[in-house]
Amino acid sequence: MTKETTDATFKNDVLDSNVPVLVDFWAPWCGPCRMVGPVIDEISDKVEGQAKVFKLNVDENQGTASKYRISGIPTVMVFKNGEPVEQLIGAQPEENYLQALAA
Fold it and tell me: Is 30 a catalytic site residue?
């Protein structure tokens, strides 16, 4: 199951991670986000031990969403060494997320 991150925990969860991190920026009212959710959960299980996967509710964590200029959701970002390295906007096939994480 995918863990939640927040404005308060984002630095520790994502930026300070020593492994790649995939972050799903989403909101409960977003239909495409609900479609992507199970795919993100599946990826979380597949990459356990090699990478981390988090969800961030943009309605409840506007500071982080604003910092990374999230204007459309779902947006999935991959962070490595505290820096965003990939960004995928809109619902995507699982392979695209896994490729972004592996890049």
Answer: yes
